Every structure is written in C-alpha cells, then in structure tokens.
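Quick note —
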Amino acid sequence: MSEMQAMCGINLFSDTQTLPTDLMRQAMMDAEVGDDVYGQDPTVRRLEERLAGEVAKECALFVPSGHMGNLVCVMAHCKAGDEVIVEETSHLYSAESGSLAAIAHVMPRIVRGRDGLLDGADVRAVLRCDDIHYPRTTLLCIENPHNAGGGAVLSLPELRDLSVAAKEHGLAVHLDGARLFNAAAALNVAAADICESADSVMVCLSKGLSAPAGSVVAGSRAFIAEARRARKLLGGGMRQVGVLAAAGLVGLDTMMDQLRADNENARLLAESLAKLPGHRVEWSRVRTNIVNANVEGLQLSSDEYVAKLAEHGILASKRPPHVVRFVTNRHVDREDIGRVIEVAKRIGRAACG
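Predicted structure written out below.
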C-alpha cells in the first residue's frame, strides 16, 4: 500500500496532492544550495537550465507556484492598462484570485472556447483597432492542456494557428502549461514542440511530476530578466531553495513514463464511466489525466456523488451542480481504477433503484 493510499484510500482529488518520491526526498536532503535571490543556488540554476532546454527557450526562472508563474509572465509582457485575451474558463482568469486585475492591473478580454480551447478565428474576432478609446491588446494567454476543459489538448497545428493570429497583430503569446508534460505525452511530441508557438511558458513541478512545490517559467533572456523583477515585487524571491529545486529535477528525470500511465488510466476510467447508466462522460475527448463525469442522470448533485465515493475511501472533487472531477496520478494504479469503476456502478444501481 502506498503512503497516499494509507492516508486517504484512492485519491483522485487532484494531482496536486502527489507526494514526493523517496528519490526526491533524498535529493532534497543532499541538495547543494545557495542564495537564489542573488543567483547563487547551484541546484536552482541546474533546474532552470534543464527546464529551459526541455521547452527550447533561452532562459528560465524558478517560482514558488504556478499562480505566481503565470502572474510574473503577464507582468513581464504587459503594462498597466493593457488588455490580455483569455479563455473564459482558463485557470489564469477564473481561478487565480483576480490577480490579473488586482496585481498586474491588466484588463482581461474574455473569449468563450470549446472545452476551453481557442482557435485563431476566436482571437481575430475580438481584436480591437488602434483607437485611443480602447486599451492596447498586448498578450494572448492559452492553456494546454486545459484544466476546466477536462484536460483538453491543443494540437501543434492549432497552437501554430493561434500564434499566427497573435503575431499578425503584434501580440505576445503566453502558455499556461501547468500540465505541459501530460499534453506532450498525449500528443506523443516533445514539450519543446508545444512551446514553439509561445513567447513564454509556465510549467508546474508539483502536479503529475510529484515534486512537493514549485513551478518554472521560461522565455527569452530579456523576458526572464523582467520576470525575475516581477517575482521579487511579488515576494517570490527565495533563499536556499535548492532543496525544492532538487525534487523538480528528479521529477523531470523519472516521471515521464508515469505521466503516460496517468493519461492511460484516465482514458480507461472515462471509457468505463461512459458505459454506466446516469454517467455522462465525453470519453473520446479525454487526452490527459483529467476526467469530468456529469452525474445529473442519477439525480445526484456533485456534492452527493462525491460524498458517496468518500464512503468507499475514494476522493474526487466536485464541479457543481452535477460534475465530478477525477484526476489520475502516480498514487493510483490500474487496480485502483477498477475499484473506482465498481464503486461507481454500485452508486448508479442505488440511485436508479
């Protein structure tokens, strides 16, 4: 039994709850450290160089969280009063505490996508002409894979289409790649291929990669200099933080096969739930490690369904009023997925009488 299972049964609440591996804990203990505010932490520098190489950017910056990573990128790209194009369910807009407005002082231009995904036509449709009455539109933010869209993935041609639309009008492109390596596994491409169309990218280490904390942003050398200043402004300057960066390096070295397994387990769960009465799952769209199941057909709210799962030691998250989200991760194996499916069948039979 894994440490996670001993703590809480089968945890599909989120991949943010993954625990560091034994290799990570050892690497953290042994990490060579220094004062990162002054660029003196050698382990942080190794992580930044490694991640920059993975996404084929000039330079990278370690930050405490994905939220801060996205925010420093917006601040580095934009001036106060600029307009930023975002999809209406994007994490950066809908789940980061209003920091676009409260801290970056930019104006979001909201666009409705399909499963959270935009295309070039969506961007062109909302671009403003150059007029002193309007804010300057300077940045397009995209999310790949898209959390609220059930882990939906933009293909490489779709990413290029968005980039072309942005560049036609002088916009920079920021990629929220919190689960970037899940998307790369789904598309069977290198992470750098996904990032080619973006000027900046943010990658989380603390989700499927299983590090305890931290994210990395990457872009040009000049861009990262601005992002570093923004990180300091936000209070994100850290000292001997190589103890965290060491875990991120281990994640990059050891977790890629696991991410592919997570994606496969999510697909199995989605296909199986879609066959059950009262469960509506668009399983063909499940590409990464997120499964959204609508249980309205069982006459159950998401709160009620999640509570019934918990009675059997299964944790999932709720997306009211009727959607339940399952996120596969390294603590959940194929046998666990089978157990979840059996419990879902039992809940369905009880609800249907």
